[in-house]
Write the structure tokens for this entry.
Amino acid sequence: MTTTNFPNGVTNATEGTTLGSLIMPDPTSAHVFFNDFDEYMAPYAAATTPAVAVPGDFVISGATPGTVACTSADGGVLTITNDNTDAHSTFVQWGGKTGTVLGTFAFDPALSMWCKSRFKISEATKCSFMVGMAAVDTTPLDDANGLFWLKAAASTTLQFKAVKTSTATATNVGTLADNTYVTVGFHYSAETGIFRLFFNDNYVATTVLTNVPATSTNLALTLGALNGTSQGTGATLSADYFMIAKQRTANG
């Protein structure tokens, strides 16, 4: 009994190349970063003599940063939680246990790119937060270069922003509610030069973003939140997963 229309497998590699006979899609055709947040290593100093500082997964910054931890939840969730003080914040940027921010993706107009994430915010109106890819910055909400989703203070509107040398293009993609998960995503097509934006897996907008970061600017996964005025309780950003993929060059 035949169980598939493709008994010899499926591949997107060119015939005659190294992986031309591979029985699965070529895993090297894209540079992919995917974090399901099933685990998280925090930076710490070992209580030994001599003490040895161990870098964590992320470089943490902010105004009196709160806590960053994995939550015992189905699917894996990273929580970033501020204390209860106005204007206090916690931001993390990918460091890969090196102790410094690792920008491992750069936008290239000649290469297609895909990104998707799922997250929620505990307080959808007063605080501000961001999720996405940004350059090294200890105050990422005003990052000079990046591709990310941002919610401003005193608003429930989520925007997708492209920023190049502090000049931004912002597109509204959806409305947030307290403690309610949403999924966001984009697809940049190198063939058309446009971004297609998605909210809860529904297409919401097509835009040509003129203020995309330069190809020489390396971007890192960046997450975090800033407490708003008279918020009462500290904001908690919960990230379920984050994925980004960029097409490789033909000989990459």
Remarks:
- DSSP finds no helices and 17 strands in the chain.
- The mean pLDDT is 92.
